Amino acid sequence: MAGGKIPGASLFAKDRSVALSDLARVTFLDTSRETLQGQCILLATRDQLPSALALLELDGHARRIVVCPGDLPLQYLPEIVATAQVDAIAIDSGASVGPDTVSGVRTITVHEQPRALAQPGAEGARAIGAIETEWVLLTSGTTGAPKLVLHTLASLAGHIPAPAVASTPGDAPRTWSTFYDIRRYGGLQIFLRAVLGDSSLVLSDAHESTPDFLARAGQRGVTHISGTPSHWRKALMSGATGRISPVYVRLSGEIADQPVLDGLRSAFAQARIAHAFASTEAGVAFDIDDGRAGFPAGLLDQSPGGAQLKVEDGTLRIRGARNASRYLGAQSAALLSPDGYVDTGDMVELREGRYHFVGRKGGVINVGGLKVFPEEVEAVINAHPGVRMSLVKARKNPITGAVVVADVVLAGDGDSPAPDVMTRSIVESCRNVLAPHKVPAMIRYVASLEVSASGKLVRPGA
Amino acid sequence: MRSTIVAQFQRVASEQNRKIAPLADDLALLDSGLDSLSFAIIVAELEDTLGIDPFDTTEMVDFPVTFGDFVRLYEKSMRAG
């Protein structure tokens, strides 16, 4: 394929690719799109490409599409299926989501090889129009079970200019890529930019090294590429940034600090480097391309792209058409405050006319773009027989933004094992049930933890 | 300095159940067998041991790519600090 040109825009996975225009005449689903009209489909494919194809085929037909990232623990599926009222689960050919976990729900297979549509062209490559399909994204919740966030294509893509506006004749064609899984908010943004702009997209792959991914993106001529600051630090440390020569480099999902912005500036001297603020609930709020961490305070008065911003009680609040509508589920908290703003939970501090992100309200920890709720880690530590109580918090880190650390009060009847033995034992019990980024990187033993008058642990920044 | 860093790499690798390659100067960090989370923990542990975080300075121009770069970054920061 080196040097060769594929006509039209394509989705490029590691081993295969699909031309977007093909979706007008073929289908990858084993069930006709008409049959799925008005249904709720959950996408649980292992790889990104089958989910991407199912999204393109089902939008406009399905009533609701629930988009699950590839690493979703299967234990949460039954609850998600019930909450979102899922009719069918889309899986890869050859894969199985485990019949016991989702009894009573049928599966749809997304095949690797397409078959011709009965009525080619009748449905169009992107079947937008018939129904305004609800898109449901997952985000981490306090207990470890994901929260379901309800969007529409309009709220997800509202700020993405239509192709006619985005590219004037004579513009070089764009090729997008992202380190993100496109089934997470940050990745989905890039997916939508590509397909709505009729541009190609190079998908990342969970089993591919950073240099190999960058080489593959480079071979496809990537011009626009996004990732979290942690993705980018890893790319910078891979020494392989020379394999791509993008004109646009985007960071989102975590605090972009000055070293990573400077590192990217030095690696990609010709590129526009922008750090975006977005969250699954609030949507895309703004992007900053002056090469400096934080954002100018003046932005609050400008409503960038129509998003209204304010800072209240130290956190950034966002209101606008890109906000999600609500959380699904009867027990769910309200997504919007009474005044219609989403509280992002991101604490900001004003220094010399610029707001800087300083962490998360309530101690939510962002490790390399993945959220960790202290409570879920504390619950595991506190279940250890040698522990009385614990406080889990973030420690700032130049590689992943933050790491998880814990202050632990031992049950202490004087005969606790040596600290290093205890630490190994606590870490071991955390590893058994928690994802690696949630396991405390460091444990400190303290005599006591501060408890407020209301009987709650005093958390930093809460 | 080097021995402190080597010891830290080995300790974190064993904690994270990862096999690491021999720590030669020209070893690419991403080929060492460690992931980002492991590096994050190493940098945090070194900050506690040595009292420096060379990543958190305005002088740092380039992210280290090889193990040798990593050691030199700490040596330089130690001299400056």
Provide the descriptors you would attach to this structure in a database record.
heterodimer, A: 462 residues, alpha/beta, Rossmann fold, GMP Synthetase, Chain A, domain 3, 3 domains, eight-stranded mixed sheet, 10 helices, globular, B: 81 residues, mainly alpha, 53% helix
Kindly describe this structure.
The complex is a heterodimer of chains A (462) and B (81). Chain A has ten helices and 26 strands. Chain A has 462 residues and is an alpha/beta fold. Chain A folds into three domains: 157 residues, Rossmann fold; 173 residues, ANL, N-terminal domain (Rossmann fold, 3-Layer(aba) Sandwich); 82 residues, GMP Synthetase, Chain A, domain 3 (2-Layer Sandwich), CATH 3.30.300. In chain A, α7 crosses α8. Chain A is globular. Chain B is mainly α and 81 residues long. Chain B contains three helices and no strands.
CATH-derived architecture of the largest domain in chain A: 3-Layer(aba) Sandwich
Number of strands of chain B: 0
Gyration radius from CA atoms of chain A, angstroms: 23 Å
CATH superfamily of the largest domain in chain A: ANL, N-terminal domain
Give the helix tally of chain A: 10
Radius of gyration of chain B from CA coordinates: 12 Å
Percent of residues in helices of chain B = 40-55%
Quote the distance from N terminus to C terminus of chain B: 14 Å
Shape assignment of chain B: globular
* Poorly predicted tracts of residues of chain B: none
Across the major sheet of chain A, the strand order is: 2-1-11-10-12-13-14-15
The proportion of residues forming helix of chain A, as a percent range, comes to 10-25%
Q: Kindly report the oligomeric state of this protein.
A: heterodimer
**Biggest sheet character of chain A:** 8 strands, mixed
